[in-house]
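The aim of this short unit is practical: by the end, you should be able to scan a pair of folded records and say something sensible about each. We start with the first protein, listed as its amino acid sequence and then its structure tokens.
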Amino acid sequence: MSNHVRPVQIIIGSVLGATEYVAEAISEACIKHNIPTQLHFSPSLSDIPTDATWIICTSTHGAGELPDNIQSFHASLSDKQLSNQALVVGLGDSSYDTYCQGAIIMSNALTNAGTTLLHAPFLVDVLHHQIPEDEVVEWITPLLSELSHNSDQ
């Protein structure tokens, strides 16, 4: 196994806190796969390694907007050229016509900046999944296994 595994950067956009629980559950799942993590509750692009794998966890606020705490991070992506990899997790309520729009906005911004999405965004409907972190951990576990094996090479 590799002696040095770069931390996965978990970038959080949250209004009411559910996305923070999801991010913390992802962090715990990463640790179980021997992948260190760094959580960014108030993300600033200048503080986040751009050569690392990113996991973006975001909800949607208002009329399909990103939460306030991730808006400046999103804006800073517009003039960047990246070459990293990322996964995007979105939380939303399907009774709104802007269901998981925050995750879609972030996915588009990342790919426009050159980031490779390792998987289509994973969208969790909180109407059907009362504990969204359970759904996300089930989905992300095989992907974390791949990441940990790839870092061993």
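Turning to the second protein, read its sequence before its tokens, just as you did above.
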Amino acid sequence: MHIKTDDTVVIIAGKEKGLKGRVLKVLRKKNKVIVEGRNLVKRHLKPNPLIGREGGIIEKEAPIDASNVMLWSDQKKTRAGEVVGGGVRVQMRYVGSDGSLFATAAEAAKTYDAAPARLPKVRYAPATGERFE
């Protein structure tokens, strides 16, 4: 999945389109994310004296499909060259021994003297040149 916990994302579809927020939780099996302060729903709770919970109506965040959010970058540029924030597409890249990025694991493994068992990967935004660790 292209989104991880604590990423800043922008919602690109639905009733909250265009709003930003921080990812609180990623539900990988359901392909959904929970974004802080977005997609709020109301839940009615019955009082439960055994655990000390009062009844009432609470608001909490509901999951959003991961395809409806995009990673946010503050370094995105417009055609005129000024820096503005915006959503960016990311690609997975393998990291070589000197920190350079490679598209395939075989290319990255060639840069190591003794290739590690698992090559490090990063998310990379080609439009901004930004790395998301």
